[in-house]
Amino acid sequence: MILTETLPERTTRVTAHRFWVTVLALILFGLIAWVTVRGFDYYRRPLSDRAFHPDHAAFRPAGTMGIRLGLLACLLFVAIYLYPLRKKWKFLRFLGSTKNVLDFHIVMGLAVAPIVALHSAFKFGGVAGMAFWIMLAVVASGVIGRYLYAQIPRTRKDTEFSFVELDQMRIELAAELEFQNFDGLPEWEHFISQIHKASAKRMSLVGALFHMLALDIRRPFQVAALRRRNLGFGSRLVTLGGLFKSNHKELEDTIALAKQQSWLSAKIFFLDRAAQIFELWHVIHRPFSYAFLVLAILHIGLVIYMGFI
What we know:
2 domains, mainly alpha
């Protein structure tokens, strides 16, 4: 195989990374949930009534909780912008691989929007309001960008695999699967061969994007069907019709190979189109990011100048 690390090594590395991403997500979204519940009675009041609410001093934008949420949002903004800066400043490479840093970037980007909304007490007027709506556009385009990034396979050093390398990996995976006594494999091979590279090239960029998304959505259900073909009635119930892993190690090892083959085949088919869409995405995402940064700095500057901090 072209991949240099063993499966156990990769599993350990991926598991550790997912653990820390999950911890960060639980902390941030747990905080968002707590503040929302704690200040719900205040946030649901009309703006004209909030000044008389006992929690006004805490939850207004310049209140004790409001300022703390604003400071947290500022820290998250600094951390979020480390991702693009990492590409330009080599001394930031210690943060980890591009893919791993991107995962943290996405989690913080998703969390910062509700944190800013809570900080502003859901008042979106003026410069701050304009920055908020631009931020939502940045977050939405960022989610799309993360999906597109996953469509272009890369090595651990963040360099893209060539078509020849990917095709060789696909051939080796297919050879490994041939040795497995696996019921339903012909139907699975038919599923992963439904798209051809030439057909993908003829699609529009939007059509290719939706087709990639449809394949990724469909794959878990195809895997479930493949798993059901090889499980008894009791195991089917336990795995909810094959949607979850069974306790049959050999079966799950083969399933993992089949999933990897399917994923890799889709990436090969759409390699050129995904790269084109990703380049177009950069043209859209970057101006929104820079515009938001300018407005956020302006808002923070005005807050400090007017003495709220």
